[in-house]
Design a protein that fits this description.
The protein is built from 19 helices and no strands. It is mostly helical and 521 residues long.
Length: 521
């Protein structure tokens, strides 16, 4: 769970960690900003909607709730579409849906129409952009992925700081209908970001190898290849993924509560509206710098293998900040709370998807993120409304912050403890097996070496004996040859010394051939 997965796309192409990946990162930055900041930016128009349709604040608050529910709850649908059609077409269609929803909302005649247009259609369009952008970011970055995740996550506070003032200006000049129409045009930039998501293509050498393998395998091998799953539920077999899903669901119960209630908390203490609204600006400004910094730290060599524990520390930091902030009784203490909450909130935002990418890898990430977002959508719909009911019952913001901090700390303990107990023990078992195998292999090698030495000695002795036998046989053969030569030699060959002297004394004529036993031979 704490290890770094080797990131390769479905086509076997290794993540380039740069190049066109920086354009993909820019698109992810914009998409993340729209996805997280837009539900909050729409709240600027709530007062005008209350006047227009004669509804209450709780009725208008359902717009943001439906947006978030669609963003999280449609995760499996997005996974299926991405696995079927790819990231780029899904994102471009999603951009059209997001823009169409806001344009249709500008012609609404009832709050129900806004629920369907802004909540459902725009929420679906943002969901179809958010999840594929993370998938493409995971495919383009491997070594620099923590930094890339931190930079893309910084789009949320940047967009929030830009869209909220822009919404107020649009409402003041053009009203809520004109503002919705212009925001719909701005959301068309999601199509531009989707066009940046160029799929990775394998080099020609790899394609040639694949073609050669296909030719060797033949038609039978092609028919046996399994089809890609549109939604891979096998991720639930991974213990690390199950632990992360449970911890993330608990985390979401309390993570988004403080930003919702901090402004009302400051007003409850008797502060002005402008000073109270400034708290969110402070929180967002700190968050902008906290996310890239945390991503840079998470990319260090000695930190990245332990990014799960860094994420657990960020959750504990955030939860303890909530617990201490519940005791704030003046504006200065709330400002300090917002500073530390912005740091911890930025750390959580930068690490939450990096940890998930580390656990499941690239191949299963498209299915894993959809299933995780589906589980988190339930907690998103339960967390803030549950905190609101607690506030109605107790009339005290302290209990709201205590509950939120306890839930976030509990998620950190679940993640760190289960990872330490189950994942670490599981990874140590193969190591012990490898050690045992190594010992057995060493013993076998020693035994083989001893046997080999014995065999060498025996072979040497056998070769020496063979050489001796060969020498004996050669000597015997030589003796036999000598005996045969002597047997074949005639008796006339023997020469008498007297005859030789007589031959030398006798004169011979020129041209005559002297006949003697030697010359005859």
């Amino acid at each position: 769970m704490g290890g770094v997965a080797v990131d390769q796309s479905a086509g076997g192409v290794k993540a380039p960690d740069g190049g066109w990946g920086w354009a993909v990162l820019a698109g992810c930055f914009v998409i993340t900003g729209f996805s997280y900041a837009f539900p909050k930016a729409v709240s600027v128009f709530f007062k005008e909607l209350i006047r227009e349709f004669g509804v209450g604040y709780s009725d208008t608050a359902w717009i943001s709730s439906i947006l978030l529910a669609m963003l999280y709850g449609t995760g499996p649908l997005c996974s299926v579409l991405v696995n079927r059609f790819g990231c780029r077409p899904v994102m471009m269609v999603g951009g059209l849906f997001a823009s169409l929803g806001m344009i249709l909302a500008s012609f609404s005649t009832s709050i129900i129409h806004i629920y369907l247009s802004t909540g459902v259609i725009t929420g679906l369009g943002l969901a179809l952009n958010f999840q594929p952008s993370l998938i493409m970011l995971n495919r383009y970055f491997s070594e620099k992925r923590p930094l890339a995740n931190g930079l893309s996550a910084a789009g949320s506070p940047v967009a929030l700081c830009c869209l909220s003032p822009l919404g107020q200006v649009l409402q003041y000049k053009y009203g809520w209908r004109g503002g919705f129409l212009i925001l719909g045009g701005i959301l068309l930039n999601c199509c531009v970001c989707g066009a940046l998501m160029k799929p990775l293509v394998a080099p020609k050498s790899l394609k040639a190898k694949d073609l050669e393998q296909d030719k060797e395998e033949g038609t039978e091998g092609r028919t046996k290849k399994p089809k890609a799953k549109l939604l891979d539920f096998s991720v639930f077999k991974d213990c690390g993924f199950v632990i992360y899903t449970v911890a993330a669901s608990i985390m979401v119960l309390g993570l988004f509560v403080p930003p919702v209630f901090v402004v009302s908390y400051a007003k409850e203490l008797g502060n002005e509206d402008t000073k109270s609204a400034l708290l969110l600006t402070i929180l967002g400004f700190i968050d902008i710098f906290a996310r890239p910094t945390c991503g840079l730290i998470a990319g260090l060599k000695w930190v990245r293998p332990r990014c799960v524990y860094l994420f657990s520390f960020a959750l504990i930091f955030n939860g303890i900040t909530d617990l201490i902030g519940s005791q704030a009784n003046d504006y200065t203490s709330i400002v300090v709370f917002c500073i530390f909450f912005g740091i911890s909130y930025g750390m959580v935002g930068a690490l939450q998807f990096e940890v998930l990418m580390t656990i499941v890898g690239t191949e299963k990430f498209s299915s894993a993120i959809g299933l995780v977002l589906l589980m988190e959508s339930i907690a998103v719909l339960v967390g803030p409304p549950g905190a609101g009911r607690l506030l109605d019952a107790t009339k005290n913001y302290m209990y709201v912050f205590l509950l939120a901090g306890s839930e976030v700390v509990l998620s950190a303990l679940v993640l760190a403890t289960c990872n330490f107990l189950f994942i670490r023990n599981k990874s140590s078992e193969p190591a012990e097996k490898l050690e045992n195998v190594a010992v057995m292999d060493g013993a076998k090698a020693e035994a083989c070496s001893v046997a080999a030495e014995v065999d060498d000695v025996e072979e040497k002795g056998a070769t020496e004996e063979q050489e001796k036998e060969m020498v004996k046989e050669l000597k015997q053969e030589e003796e036999k040859d000598k005996e045969k030569v002597e047997d074949v030699r005639p008796e006339s060959v023997t020469v008498d010394s007297q005859e030789v002297e007589r031959f030398l004394k006798e004169p011979q004529q020129n041209g005559d051939v002297a006949t003697s036993p030697e010359t005859c031979l």
